[in-house]
Specification:
single chain, 60s Ribosomal Protein L30, Chain: A, 6 strands, about 55% helix
């Protein structure tokens, strides 16, 4: 009998650029560009400095360690994961695979491993795809059960994803990969309450998860003995988190057929993934209304999204962790000011926005598909204007040129040197015939002046 960890391990071990579909390889390149680009664009967000301080306090500066991107100091691999994942997550415009943000976990981890261990870069894209596939397989199957219970998909499925990516990058054999996955299943966790409270734990979860996944792989390489039925066992991952049975064979059949990385979407706005479509609809509605006074607004969305922690929050707000999750805040801000930017998302005392929130009603409607929404606006002159916004993941699955335009547009707003994006694009395009030093050089362009002293 082949267990789920063995099925996934065999698939991961066999991953190779020459044997993966062209569109899968290209999507992985796009994920790299988006992640690095959004990290550059997050240069002035406050979370990476907090994570850097914690990393240095725990691990110290280390000659020959992994670079804290945008800072320049080096620390342990795990510390760099913590610091760099917070940077990648800083704008909340990271990629999304279902409800999980795997890019913020996998890419900082693989970057640190490539820098410190100098693993061959022909492993980078297969390792990245391995992470998306291992984590995405489980996210698609079970996030609908785990998320409503308060478990964050990035934490629950991210550790598994990270163990697969780290193991593939490290060159583990199939037996070791299965043990790494089993270890990660045992280490998984992560709550959603910080979204409801508008606090910052979720910014740092992804770095902790990256380190957990790497730990799972290193333990396996060192010879840890791990549960063969870690996923499908009576006390295993699926029963513990999803409270259901695990159909091993059905999941195994999806590997290499239903590519999770092809489901990855990107975010045009600095708000929650579930708020991308409401903002898009509000922008279209704003144009149609042409300044008409609004008496009331109803926003209809799928219950899976409206029930996510923090989505129904109406304030008062004191952090962007609260505003970017709140559907009413995002709708009010967009209808009044247009495209939401970081300045608007961090303005908490705007009387116009806060007063408008009281006129917005959030309606859970199972007839509205996920990633879609309907906004009904009642005007002061007695009209009801309806904006239906049907969207699918394909609408947010930009090609690499689209990703480039997105990260560069924000880069102009954030005063990021265009040369930094040029170097990143060259790195992504030339893989594997390049060096991770090109990534480090790109981020060196936004390091503080003290690095030149």
């Amino acid at each position: 009998m082949t267990t789920l960890s063995q099925h996934i391990a065999g698939f991961v071990h066999a991953l190779d650029v020459d044997r993966m579909p062209t569109e899968v390889v290209e999507k992985a390149r796009g994920c790299l560009l988006n992640a690095y680009g959004m990290a550059l664009d997050g240069r002035d967000t406050p979370y990476a400095p907090v994570a850097r301080a914690a990393a240095i306090a725990m691990d110290g500066e280390q000659r020959g360690g992994a670079t804290m991107l945008g800072d320049g100091r080096k620390t342990a691999i795990g510390g760099a994961c913590l610091a760099n994942s917070a940077l990648f997550h800083g704008r909340a415009q990271e990629d999304t695979c279902g409800a999980a943000h795997f890019g913020t976990i996998l890419i900082p981890l693989l970057t640190a491993l490539a820098e410190v261990r100098r693993y061959p870069l022909d492993r980078l894209l297969p390792a990245l795809v391995a992470g998306y596939e291992a984590g995405g397989l489980l996210e698609k199957a079970y996030a609908g059960l785990t998320t409503p219970s308060g478990l964050r998909a990035s934490g629950i499925y991210g550790a598994v994803a990270a163990s697969a990516a780290a193991g593939r990058m490290m060159g583990l054999d199939a037996r070791q990969l299965a043990a790494a996955l089993a270890n990660a299943a045992s280490f998984s966790g992560g709550l959603l309450q910080s979204f409801a409270d508008g606090t910052d734990e979720w910014r740092y979860q992804v770095g902790v998860v990256a380190k957990l996944g790497w730990t799972a792989a290193e333990l396996s390489k060192a010879g840890s003995v791990s549960a063969p039925f870690a996923f499908e066992g009576r006390a295993g991952f699926v029963r513990a988190f999803a409270r259901t049975d695990c159909d091993v064979e059905a999941l195994a059949r999806r590997l290499g057929e239903d590519w999770a990385v092809l489901r990855v979407t990107y975010k045009p706005f600095p708000v929650c993934a579930f708020n991308q479509t409401p903002v898009t609809a509000a922008l279209a509605l704003r144009e149609r209304l042409a300044g008409a006074e609004l008496k009331a607004v109803r926003v209809r969305m799928n219950p899976y999204e409206t029930g996510y922690a923090g989505m129904d929050a109406v304030g008062p707000f004191t952090t962007i962790s609260g505003t970017l999750m709140s559907i009413p805040f995002c709708i009010a801000t967009t209808l009044i000011y247009g495209v939401p930017d970081m300045k608007r998302m961090t303005t908490y005392d705007d009387a116009g926005v806060n007063g408008f929130i009281d006129r917005i009603t959030l309606v859970s409607d199972a007839g509205v598909p996920t990633l879609s929404c309907i906004i009904e606006a009642d005007t002061a002159d007695g009209r009801t204007v309806v904006q239906e916004q049907p969207m699918t993941p394909a609408d947010y699955a930009y090609d690499r040129a689209g990703v480039s335009r997105l990260v560069r547009r924000i880069g102009i707003e954030q005063d990021v040197p265009m040369a930094a994006f040029d170097r990143l694009e060259a790195f992504v395009d030339r893989l594997p015939m390049t060096s991770i030093d090109e990534v480090l050089a790109s981020f060196a362009l936004i390091e503080p002046e003290r690095r030149a002293a």
